[in-house]
């Protein structure tokens, strides 16, 4: 998700409903990972408010304080959905690597656990991304998890500097070509292939952004709205 979901659109459940629908379960096991926000308690509280027991079996994983989880691998592999929150992508990746979360997430992905998230939780899965993790301004991050090829950019419509900075980084060779998503737009991958783009807003879009010769070419990806019109989806197989 370029942005949206429970923390940014509390009155619009379409993207979160879409994610839950991918699990194929009435009340899926959903684990929120708020590492990028420093495990901000307010963010965690919003998650539990948005995912009550009748909607999901909600849990969260804290890495900044004792969460009571004794075996991280067993805990994460037992989830239907792992939902990564926004914040500092660079800090999140560094902390994940210290705890081995990066390796566990790859194992969960191959096992068919749904991996989702917004902002930092969108771009972390790619090889590279455009981030504001390094202080003022936007810059290239080139050590993502590499589950997905290329680069990614969130918040494409609400921060005017994002589009220009993303194009410039690709043009200068600082970032590979990739995908961008507006707030309210999400990219659904099955394995490593883009299955579709969905949205929670009529005008939210996703884009392919690539360097062709010396020119950066941006192409809108067909985006389906509303995201909730097909929640019962076929088995997506490995690495959903």
Layout of helices and strands, plus pairs?
Layout: H1 14-22, E1 29-33, H2 41-50, E2 57-60, H3 72-77, E3 81-84, H4 89-99, H5 101-111, E4 114-117, H6 120-123, E5 126-131, E6 139-141, E7 148-153, H7 160-171, E8 178-181, E9 185-190, E10 193-199, E11 206-212, E12 215-221, E13 223-224
Parallel strand pairs: 1-2, 1-3, 3-4, 5-7, 7-8, 10-13
Antiparallel strand pairs: 5-6, 8-11, 9-10, 11-12
Explain how this protein is built:
There is one protein chain. The chain is of the alpha/beta class. It has a single domain, classed as 3-Layer(aba) Sandwich (Rossmann fold). It is about 25% helix and about 25% strand. The radius of gyration is 17 Å and the shape is globular.
Outline of the structure:
With about 240 residues, the chain is α/β, with parallel strands linked by helices. The chain has one domain: Rossmann fold (3-Layer(aba) Sandwich). The chain contains seven helices and 13 strands.
Low-pLDDT regions: 231-240
**Arithmetic mean pLDDT:** 93
Strand content: 25-35%
Tally of alpha and pi helices: 7
CATH superfamily: Class I glutamine amidotransferase (GATase) domain
Radius of gyration equals: 17 Å
Order of strands in the sheet with most strands: 6-5-7-8-11-12
Structural class: alpha/beta
Question: Which sheet architecture does the biggest sheet show?
Answer: 6 strands, mixed
CATH class: Alpha Beta
The total of beta strands comes to: 13
> How many domain regions?
1
Order of helices and strands: HEHEHEHHEHEEEHEEEEEE
Shape: globular
Task: Predict the CATH topology.
Answer: Rossmann fold
**What is the CATH architecture term?**
3-Layer(aba) Sandwich
């Amino acid at each position: 998700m370029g942005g949206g979901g429970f923390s940014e659109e509390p009155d619009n459940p379409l993207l979160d409903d879409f994610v839950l629908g991918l699990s194929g379960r009435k009340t899926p096991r959903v684990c929120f990972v708020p590492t990028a926000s420093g495990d901000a308690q307010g963010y965690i509280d919003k998650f539990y408010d948005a995912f009550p027991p009748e909607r999901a079996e909600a849990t969260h994983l804290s890495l900044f304080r004792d969460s009571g989880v004794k075996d991280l691998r067993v805990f994460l592999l037992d989830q239907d959905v792992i939902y990564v929150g926004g914040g500092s992508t660079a800090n999140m990746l560094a902390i994940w690597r210290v705890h081995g979360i990066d390796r566990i997430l790859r194992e969960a992905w191959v096992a068919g656990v749904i991996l989702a998230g917004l902002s930092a939780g969108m771009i972390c899965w790619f090889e590279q991304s455009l981030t504001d993790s390094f202080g003022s301004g936007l810059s290239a991050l080139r050590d993502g998890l590499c589950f997905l090829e290329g680069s990614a950019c969130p918040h494409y419509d609400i921060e005017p500097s994002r589009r220009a900075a993303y194009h410039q980084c690709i043009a200068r060779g600082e970032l590979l070509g990739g995908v961008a998503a507006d707030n309210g737009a999400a990219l659904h991958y099955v394995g490593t292939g883009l299955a579709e783009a969905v949205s929670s807003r009529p005008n939210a879009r996703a884009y392919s952004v690539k360097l062709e010769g010396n020119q950066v070419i941006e192409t809108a990806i067909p985006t389906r709205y509303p995201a909730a019109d097909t929640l019962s989806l076929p088995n997506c197989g490995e690495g959903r």
